Fold:
Amino acid sequence: MTPSAAGSAIRRASPLVGETIQVPQLSLHSPIGDLTVSEEDGAIVALDWGWGRDQTETKLLVRARAELFAYFDGARTAFDLPLAPAGSAFQRRVWDALGTIPFGALWTYKDLARATGSVPRAVGQANAANPIPILIPCHRVVAVGGLGGYSGGDGLATKRALLALEENRALEANGTQDAGRLL
Structure:
């Protein structure tokens, strides 16, 4: 989840030596700050904090922006976008498991380790390397005794905001008043 520098575009190596290609990006304002979504080969490959320098309205990026707006507005609890995060086989396995955590739910790093046949420290590192936060909900993973960490946006303040948004929507859906989580 390493944020890119505001205004910089993600670049991928092309098959030709020394040549780089620029991937399409589209930015949006959100309650947790400006976000930029990047696409490559018909799939979302990154979500970064900050406003991208170049703005390209591809069909997929416009759809991703609309789904993120709906998520922040409380009208969407899951995303229906093709995702292609670049990472090792282990990281992709962890990111796939993150995608199974229900909206409004929390898993511990220990739960995630159990689900992936690994150990908490390793899944924590894979979680921190997630290139598509929010869409791959790494914010839903907490430490056994507290929030754990978060490397996106403003760190733990951003994680708290995302968890509060989901908790409030889940409570509204269930007609419950009592929150009381780790926030």
